[in-house]
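Hi there, hope your week has been kind to you so far. Thanks so much in advance, here it is:
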Amino acid sequence: MKDRAVELTSAGDVVAACGDDTLTVWAAQGMGPGVRAWSMGEAVVVASPDLNRRDRLAVHGPAPQVARLVELVWPKLGPSYRLLGDRDLLGELVGLVPGMRPLASFEWMDAAGPPPPGRAQPGTGGWLRDADAEVSALLAEASPSAWATPGVTGIRRWAGIRADDGTLVATAADAWSCPQVGFVAGVATAPSHRGRGHGERLCRFVFEALAAAHGRVALMVDSDNRTAIGLYERLGLRIRPVAAVALEGV
């Protein structure tokens, strides 16, 4: 392995370099504005600005090679970038690269296709129009810490389910999707309407739509949110432990 970082200039280059790893491909965002990527040996890093509300440096590959690649490309980036990758990999990197500070652990979940067949039920949901105020109100009540909210950069559209009286009772966003991966965020159900299957029906609708458009579906979820994880697993998503790490003084 030559100790030289090779800059990748297309989404196809990233796919080939990382073996079509879903998280890495998602981070590349089709190599949209501001995104940069490099490889060295089996290591790949992708710098994606303002992705899921953070400047992210997705990392993939053997820890020693990734550590060296991060050290080489870091001067081209800046302190706002946070590493994102498999939890075990980042745990190794903390011991290899001076100045790394663990931030959080959570779960990445994805599926290479639509959900498995389920029973057809009423109120399956649909894409919303001119409903930002309703979505904001629902999230403020049901999920005040949601990272996806109306007006945030990268959110393409919102889906929802309404009660018989027209009240919005469940919502989810198509947010930070890229050509190869549809990404879901902002999933929430009004507390007074939980336990009625709204979340599962709405997620099924959104997952099916994004799988049809992108081939793959992914999201992130807190590790302690076992109810949501169980729902996503029933809909065919597989869990992948990930973490975020800050860089200081590299």
Remarks:
- The chain has a mean pLDDT of 95.
- The helical segments are 11-18, 22-28, 63-73, 87-96, 132-142, 198-214, 226-234.
- The domain at 6-107+242-247 is CATH 3.40.630 (Aminopeptidase).
